[in-house]
Amino acid sequence: MMMSPASIGGVLLRRAIKSTKHAHQHRRHLITHISPTTSLLRSDTSDNEVYLLGTAHISQASNEEVVDLIQLVQPKYVFVELDANRAAQLRSSAASKNNMADSFNTLFKGIGKGLPPNIIQQLPPQMNNILPMLQNAPQMMSRMGWLGSQGGEMKAALEEAERIGATCVYGDVDFEVTMRDLRLAMMGMAANPMNLMQMIGNAPSPPKELAELTGIMLSGGNPTQLIEAVKTREQAKQMTKYVSEALPPLYDVMITKRDVHMAKMLRKHCSEGKVVAVVGAGHVEGIEREWEALDHSS
Length: 298
What we know:
Low-confidence stretches: 23-27
Number of helices: 15
Strand order of the largest sheet: 1-2-3-6-4-5
Largest sheet: 6 strands, mixed
Number of domains: 1
Organism: Skeletonema marinoi
Distance between the termini: 38 Å
Pfam families: TraB_PrgY_gumN (PF01963)
Order of helices and strands: HEEEHEHHHHHHEHHHHHHEH
Radius of gyration: 20 Å
InterPro entries: TraB/PrgY/GumN_fam (IPR002816), TraB_PrgY-like (IPR046345)
Protein name: TraB domain-containing protein
């Protein structure tokens, strides 16, 4: 359920009042969860405040949350999970066929089809779930906000930043670099099918919500309602944890490396004043973790 500007403002105000009670302490709270989709990141080495909003790329509610939060905070910077080229495409309303999700579709569509018959016969039961998930991964990850595709909420962030005169910061890894690293990771997995089988065989069962999402995608249904339910911090955490355990090489490229990069970009380019950072829900936990680690290492 989307929070209205008034309710978001009430939460922020209560948090701010509460934080003053700890003013005598040497350290401030670096990370404060102020709603199921929004975190407040602060630092011991600077006075900036980063409002980190986790979104889903096909969520109209996310679009509205982005605008509401920017209007409320009136930030100096608006940070988006886009690289400069994809931001330019989005600003010019370039065809979505050029976006990251479609490129990932091309890369993923042949998964499982080239395995030899003797290997297929030896596949563990988990493969019955894993192969469809892999083949539909680009669509699911795009809709959950894990690919940084050209979603409506990113465009809303760019437009609202321009309207209030905020500086836009493009914080994602360059798309071509991500694609190169993903190809290498997938080539490494394909080169050793038995190792892939072992990796998947050791994976836990997928979260119920992820299995349901896969079923909806395979049946051609509309996953919007389920996505609204699972875009919260805790649900996204469960899903990313599963991907990290089931397919570590892909997780490293699509999630970990980009989380590290985005946290560093926030530190480097948004080090003063108020910031609204708009990222896919699957990146929130990793950015929070990297943000805290960077502060401790300063």
